Amino acid sequence: MQALAFNTQFSADTGHSIVVHPSVTRTTAPNASAYTFTGTNSFLIGHERLALVDPGPEDQAHYHALERAIAGRTVDAIILTHTHRDHSAAAPYWRQRLGAPLWSNGPHRLSRPLRRFEVNRIARSGDFTLVPDRVLQDGALVMAGDVEIVVHTTPGHCANHLALGIVGTDTVLTGDHVMGWNSTLVSTPDGSMADYFSSLDKLIALPYRRYLPAHGGEIENGPDYARALKAHREMRNSQVVAAVEGGARTIGQVVAQIYPTQSPKVRMAARMTIAAHVEYLAERGAIKARHTLLGTRLSPA
Question: Which of 44, 107, 127, 300 is the most exposed place for a label (fewest CB within 10 A)?
Answer without folding.
Answer: 300
